Amino acid sequence: MRIEIWADVVCGWAHIGKRRLEKALASWEGEPIEVVWRPYQIDPSAPARAVPMTEMLRDPMADEALRACAPGLSPVQNRARVAEVAAAEGLGSQWGSGWRAGTLEAHRLIALAYEKGGAELQDRVVERVLRAHFVDVQDISDLAVLTAIATEAGLAGEAGYTASPARAATRAGESDRTGFDRVPQTLPGAALTRELLLVGKAKGVRTSPTIVAGGLALEGAQSPETIREFLEDASRRAPRRLPAEVERLRHAESLLDQRDPLGALTLLRPLMEEHGADRGVRMLAARAYFASAQLNRARTALDALVAEAPDDSYARHLLGRTLQRQGRHEEAASHLTLAAVMTPDYAAG
């Protein structure tokens, strides 16, 4: 059975959860389990150049966000509480993050570790990244730090890192941009990491860590006993795996429902390349084009869909709305009228 851990490597509970999961698996007597780490971001707006945690804690906006994470506790009190739990789990008394650091490059390295060496290599890389952040108090957004970790794992060349940590550090400081635009998409694993972040969103992952297995999800760093019970339930349920293309289509539709049409189009891109004749794929793409105001692309896709199936009232209605938004009101009116005749509910829309 495969279990996925959706987590951010700057999340203290992810480090604690890893230890608790290891304790749960140490006494596990069921079927073999493969643990795969997946990316989640608790602070996607973190700057490219990390800032000291003490500086972040003085930021009123950060203070408000941290208080929301731990009602009734100040950020300082919450950090102390998490550090106590970490010490009890054997992570050390001097445990604690020192930097507000972006994690996209770390997630890219972790994703590549699984692609190149499977779960065992990925686990070693995750452990090393977590130790760097929480024990060694290093800046894991610094490519010099990640290059050292990648080199230890034999992944420096695979990850596209320079052999020189000094040059890596210079590259890390070249931009203050936040988000995926600061990780060149030509780097190995960059597109994969972006897709995985979108898949997590599509699946409804909303906190770090979240364990997903057998169609079930367990949020937070639960006790080893709770994790074992969860794994037993997941093992009994183990749903039939859908074809990868169907899963991708469903994830894209979920993102569109969450008002992320650009994310939906990102997941749809391989399907459009490989299954471009499929009407379901084309319709979902047309909806995403419309929702993201790519009206020319939406009109082109919908023109073809309506020509192929003139009695498809939804495609005709969406084409009419697209033309309407383009200011082509006469053309829009004919499609909207026909759609309303076929499906009266569209008359109100």
UniProtKB/TrEMBL annotation:
Domain DSBA-like thioredoxin: 3-159
Highest taxon listed in the record's lineage: Bacteria
Pfam families: DSBA (PF01323), TPR_19 (PF14559)
Gene3D superfamilies: Glutaredoxin (3.40.30.10), Tetratricopeptide repeat domain (1.25.40.10)
InterPro entries: DSBA-like_thioredoxin_dom, Thioredoxin-like_sf, TPR-like_helical_dom_sf
PANTHER family: GLUTATHIONE S-TRANSFERASE KAPPA, THIOREDOXIN SUPERFAMILY PROTEIN
Protein name per its UniProtKB record: DsbA family protein
Lineage: Bacteria, Bacillati, Actinomycetota, Actinomycetes, Streptosporangiales
